[in-house]
Write a structure and sequence with these properties.
Strand content: 15-25%
Order of helices and strands: EHEHEHHEEEHHEEEEEEH
Distance between the termini: 45 Å
Number of strands: 12
Radius of gyration: 21 Å
Structural class: alpha/beta
Helix content: 25-40%
Largest sheet: 6 strands, antiparallel
Low-confidence stretches: 154-158, 163-184
Mean pLDDT: 81
Oligomer: single chain
Length: 326
């Protein structure tokens, strides 16, 4: 079943609930399983839970309004991350315009704006601008139903959230794919760049989530997570106020352009030295992170996907912290 994530601001909570009701038939048909922060259980840590749900979703529904665009969290932590995943080919983003606002020129990364993607309801006309909101949501949900059914079939119709006029230019190549003769397609530089960015994004999200869990596990422990720039972050762990572990993780740079890199005991964007790295490798199954050059004592077994790379770095960092407090 397709998993769906609803991104919205609480100023639009009533409209969000109305949309959820309209999506209920799709849920009952087994087409989609929805998640939104209204499903959080008491005691759950808000940000890590939200980010984990966002990272694991197949479809992200953006409920766009002036309040949504003005929200730093909705814009930076949810919408930009969702479109980064769409560029990697791992999620479909569906904008639904709730209330009239200047949404078309809003940047979504990579030099693109929201206007370049199909928005719902029809023609991106805001939900509250229709004769009634039920009609508007019915139009939007009908388009989502068609998209979900097409994903299970062979439809060539334009899909919600795709570019409205450039379907012929969309790349269908995927690393490791084959043609009718069984000849493996060679990954392109674009494939490698997107795979590397996906690995970095997944690693950053995992560290942020795990640091929050670590902090919540013991009152003596504190943690810090800092996004240094778009290609690097730093993570720190403190015990009774004393730093017992710190790491920087980044991608890119002159010497390790096609690798995820790690440096202990530093919080800087300088990329001239490292303690461990996971280079991108071509495998029969497609692109993967290889640990053949890794300097850590804890070696990875076999090629790693984005989740495997993230867990590999986290486990080694956690082991380093443990060794310093034993």
């Amino acid at each position: 079943m397709t998993t769906g994530f609803i991104s919205y601001t609480h100023a639009d909570a009533a409209l969000k609930e109305q949309l959820v009701r309209h999506l209920t038939p799709l849920r009952r048909e087994g087409l989609i399983d929805l998640w939104h922060d209204g499903l959080l259980r008491p005691g759950e840590h808000l940000d890590p839970t939200v980010q984990a749900a966002l990272a694991s979703s197949d479809v992200v529904i953006l409920l766009v309004s002036a309040d949504f665009i003005a929200s730093e969290y909705c814009y930076e932590q949810e919408m930009l991350r969702a479109f980064a995943r769409q560029r990697d080919g791992t999620v479909r983003v569906i904008p639904i315009i709730l209330r009239p606002c200047q949404w078309k020129g809003v940047p979504i990364g990579n030099g693109e704006t929201l206007s370049e993607f199909v928005a719902l309801p029809k023609d991106g006309k805001a939900v509250i601008s229709w004769s009634d909101t039920d009609t508007a949501f019915d139009n939007a949900v009908g388009a989502i139903r068609d998209m979900l059914k097409a994903n299970h079939g062979n439809s060539t119709q334009d899909k919600v959230g795709s570019r409205p006029t450039n379907d012929a230019l969309v790349r269908t190549h995927r690393a490791g794919s084959t043609n009718l003769l069984g000849i493996a397609a060679k990954p392109t530089d674009l494939d490698r760049d997107r795979f590397l960015r996906s690995g970095y994004t997944t690693t950053a999200a995992l560290f942020e989530e795990k640091l929050a869990e670590l902090k919540a596990s013991d009152a003596r422990i504190d943690t810090d997570f800092e996004r240094i720039d778009s290609r690097s972050f730093a993570a720190s762990v403190y015990l009774d106020g004393k730093r017992v572990g710190q790491v920087s993780i980044w991608h890119g740079g002159d010497m390790w352009r096609n690798a995820l890199c790690l440096s202990y005991d530093t919080a800087t964007s300088t990329r001239n030295s490292m303690n461990d790295w996971l280079p991108i490798e071509d495998t029969p199954q497609g692109l993967a992170f290889g640990a053949g050059n890794a300097m850590s004592r804890q070696r990875a077994n076999g090629p790693l996907d984005a989740d495997g790379a993230a867990n590999y770095f986290w486990q080694n960092f956690l082991e380093q912290v443990r060794s310093r407090i034993r």
